[in-house]
Amino acid sequence: MLEKALGQFVMSKSAIRDITDRLAHAYEAFQTSDLRGYDIASVRIDTVYEPLRRWGRKTGVFCVWGIGVDGRKVWLSLATAHSESDDSGREGLRDLSKRSMPTPVTITTEGAWPDQSPRLSLAACAPDAWLVA
Length: 133
Known about the structure:
The chain has four helices and four strands; from the N terminus they run ααβββαβα. It has 133 residues and is an alpha+beta fold.
């Protein structure tokens, strides 16, 4: 939009490259951060489909956020996903476990495991440490 108004590129290629590099490093730090300091009561999981380019197909973004015992919402993970599948759900939950997130009281999904009951789905994909009753 601004390019059309000004009739030229607003940022140089090197400036865009620098911003992209900083964003990539920030994302990597976010995705590998230790989660043991969060007192999460509930985990919410959903895949949303967003256009990442101006034209073309939408890309699935696998989102995981937690709600703390104090009611505070915290983003826990964001990753691209091909679909709302068992594999995406398993990978997302395993990632939280590897990052030392304490066991949540509940895990809620929106369509991530459509062919199974929620209890069977979570038992099939949750890290073993989270399944101890």
